[in-house]
Amino acid sequence: MNNAATVLVLDDNTDLLTAARLCLKPYFAKVLTLSDPSQLQSCLQQQPVQLLLLDMNFQRDVSSGEEGIYYLQQALKCQPDLKVVMMTAYAELPLAVRAMQLGACDFIAKPWSNEQLLRTLQKHSSEQTTRDKNGAVPAEAISAQPAAPMLGQSAAMQQVQRLIEKAAATEANILLLGESGTGKALAAEAIHQASPRRQGPLVTVDLGAVHSNLFESELFGHKKGAFTDAKSDYSGRLRQASGGTLLLDELGNVPLSLQAKLLTALQSRVVVPVGSSQSQPFDARLIAATNEDLLAKVGRGEFRQDLLYRINTVEICLPPLREREGDIPLLLDWYLKFYSDKYQQSGLRIRPSDQRQLCRYRWPGNVRQLAHAVERAVVLAEQSELDFSQLESSAGSAPAAAAQSPEGGDFVLGATLDYVEQKTIAQALQYYQGNISQAAKALGLTRAALYRRMEKYRL
Ligand SMILES: Nc1ncnc2c1ncn2[C@@H]1O[C@H](COP(=O)(O)OP(=O)(O)OP(=O)(O)O)[C@@H](O)[C@H]1O
């Protein structure tokens, strides 16, 4: 299984460099090794590298891990899209978490097995190759497996499951609604997998992440030479989804100026690439997702009503986690097992009193936040009982205990939640000195979702 990526391994232990080279060579296009970290920048400037396997400690400063953090930052400054996997000793796990907050994509504990090393690097190199130089995603790299099955036994989730099953069998357009982190992308995957189109691709377009100048070419494609950076013909995401499903995520971000063209394309099932006069057919089932109130946007003249009616044949609303408290133990159990396996930990458990508090916590970031909280607790575990006090510092608001009224009942109303969310975001932005990527990562949000909230709270 050859991979087109170039890997650079940086460690001052030459035996380890030899071992890594032997292990990786058959699987990657090029494996470079470097024992002197001072040459890192010039090495990255000389040749394109997709993956960097970076040690945390070098001889000058044997065990603090600060050198690893320093070289990580240097590498990302030089090449911001580089995927960096940190190599760390078990005792350095908290440092590895810090490295991930600073932009590393993963870490691997030493001593690693060849199989582990390969699996980790291949996982990130396939993410790396999902975009070409036009920012486009090749169709074969698009269908991602969900990290988790869609869990939930509450009445609200059972209703969601029923709707998914019914709608999946049809060709109806589906609009997925719900707050960030409630599982809209997961629901889209479930619909695709349960549909007759499951053999085709599931093409996801994160409309919150597409630059406004590139919307049209991203969706409808372009001809070579249509604009300065159009070095070759590009089919566009609608055509790439042919035979499968197209997920338009963060739909509320489509500029008004393009909404008419999108509507025409969805109605006529053809696209006209930028720079071309010829229409091209596409055959994709449409799922759209948003956490915005599109009707309100229609009312404000920011979203076309006819486009909304075209895409919302079936509406499925993913409930916020705080409204299905009964699902929380199930999710905690699943993610505890998942991350215990991932980090090779065993015997970890959640104290019953913490479990009760976690069930009453408001989870403003929904299931995504819960998964991150469990992951952090597993990584930082020093004893068998997990410590969730970090939820307070990482999420900026205290777990359930602080979300209680003096009488002990739930009192957090919409306005209060907004207040908590705003405060949390402001704290994260301050902590990361305005670095959006790092703040978004710490909050468990996408950059686009964080931007929307910053706009909402005028931060
Ligand atoms: N019901 C669920 N069971 C298990 N995991 C879930 C569930 N819902 C969400 N998750 C997990 O939570 C994370 C966020 O889910 P997802 O990306 O689908 O949310 P989203 O609503 O699309 O968020 P956003 O609006 O920010 O893009 C993912 O890791 C997903 O696997």
What does this structure look like?
The protein has 4 domains: 3-128, Response regulator (Rossmann fold, 3-Layer(aba) Sandwich); 139-317, Rossmann fold (3-Layer(aba) Sandwich); 322-395, Orthogonal Bundle (Helicase, Ruva Protein, domain 3); 413-459, Orthogonal Bundle (Arc Repressor Mutant, subunit A). It has 19 helices and 12 strands. The chain has helices spanning 14-24, 40-46, 66-78, 93-101, 114-128, 155-168, 184-194, 215-220, 237-240, 256-268, 294-299, 305-311, 328-342, 352-360, 366-380, 390-395, 414-431, 436-443, 447-456, and strands at residues 3-10, 28-34, 51-55, 83-89, 106-110, 174-177, 202-206, 245-249, 270-271, 280-281, 285-290, 314-317. The strands form 3 sheets. A 5-stranded parallel sheet has the order 2-1-3-4-5, sandwiched between helices. Strands 7-8-11-6-12 form a 5-stranded parallel sheet. Strands 9-10 form a two-stranded antiparallel ribbon. Helix 2 packs parallel to helix 3 (66-78), helix 13 packs across helix 15 and helix 18 packs across helix 19. The longest helix has 18 residues, at 414-431. It is globular. Residues 128-146 and 393-415 have low confidence and may be disordered. Residues 146-148, 150-152, 178, 180-186, 291, 331, 367-368, 371, 446, 449 line the site of adenosine-5'-triphosphate (ATP).
Please describe the structure with a list of short key phrases separated by commas or semicolons.
alpha/beta, Rossmann fold, binds adenosine-5'-triphosphate, five-stranded parallel β-sheet, globular, Helicase, Ruva Protein, domain 3, 4 domains, 459 residues, 43% helix, single chain, 13% strand
